[in-house]
What does this fold into?
Amino acid sequence: MSLREDVEAEALAANRALASLTDAGVAAALRTAGELVRARRAEILAANRTDVEAAAGRLDEGTLDRLRLDESRVEALAAQVGVMAELEPLEREIGERRLENGLLVQERRIPIGTVGANFEARPTVALDVAGQLLKSLNTGILRTGGAALGTVTVLVDQVLRPALERAGLPPGAIGLVRSAEREGARVLVTMPERIPLVILRGSGETTAQLARLAAEHGVRTLAHAEGGGVLYVDAAADREKALGLIDASLDRLGVCNRLNLLLAHRDVAFLGDLLAFLAERGFDVRGTERVGAGAARLDVRLGHEWANDAARIKTVTVDVVDSLEEAVRLANEETSGLAAGIVTEDRDAAERFLDGYRGTAAFWHAPTRFTDGFELTGAPETGINVDWTPGPRGPVTYRDLWLRQYRIIGDGTQRR
It folds into this structure.
């Protein structure tokens, strides 16, 4: 069969599994999946070693780190699936009201159907996303970056599908695009009858192209294409807090919620200390003319996301602003809108910053690294949606993956 026929077959099986999913059955399947991750640890690690060895020399170290599993990461994966199993099911009843004519109007949450998910070569995402979809009683078709396909195939075929089957659910509820070719992602976003929604994760331009292709074919997307955290050091900032937040925001480099753009008020007396702090830790500090000689000249746009720039991933952009209002404007207009934080001892300034920033998460004296579904909501995320439209925004979890439905019950006598 062709690649498209293969994906259609997986999608058809997932569509047919929808009616069988129940909250109790899914919880049982996820518990078993956690147990199977531990029981099949050796097979998972063997497949991952093969994937990493094949990717060595082709992928940058940050991408290889996200691809690589070890004993502790496999254990964390098993534990997280177990946590997912025990979370409260999605509340289906939103509310109801009785009309004057006697009709009972009920507002409910119902599953979307079969949801596609295209994600980076990061095996842990496979179970995160599949767990979210199943927990919301949706089925799914997964498509990972080609470098992780071997590991993800083991996770689907030796963990997820056996777990579903042991719980009395159709194993086809979770499907997989079984090709390393990028064409698999294009097929995934062009099947509106079978896969009406696709979650897109990954680097900005690739994800943006897939979103455009999906729109052309009538497929809706939840896209996590860009990120990059902002930290504004206000005139009333404490030096030690500022240094601590910078440090806490840069514990990992290849993640979307790391510190990307550092803004400092022109009256901050310790700007030189901030720049030296970054330089001492081996960062390439890029700044505008307003920063002066303390930083190399910025040669990309202000909000350029360094986490997606493999050649210069250990870089931070710095700018100096004249006011808090300018800092808010730059965070809103020049970055993706993922997350921004302020460090200041002035409560009024903090409130103005939090009220003015329109991104998905706003912080005061906390690092943007906490822009994460599990940290903020207690549930793993499928991604972080930065769209400027109504609907799930910020970390998207199983609690967001539903459609609204009205149910109307009468007695047969009502007329308009």
Observations:
- The longest strand covers residues 104-110.
- The mean pLDDT is 94.
- Residues 3-225+392-408 form a domain with the Aldehyde Dehydrogenase; Chain A, domain 1 fold (CATH 3.40.605.10).
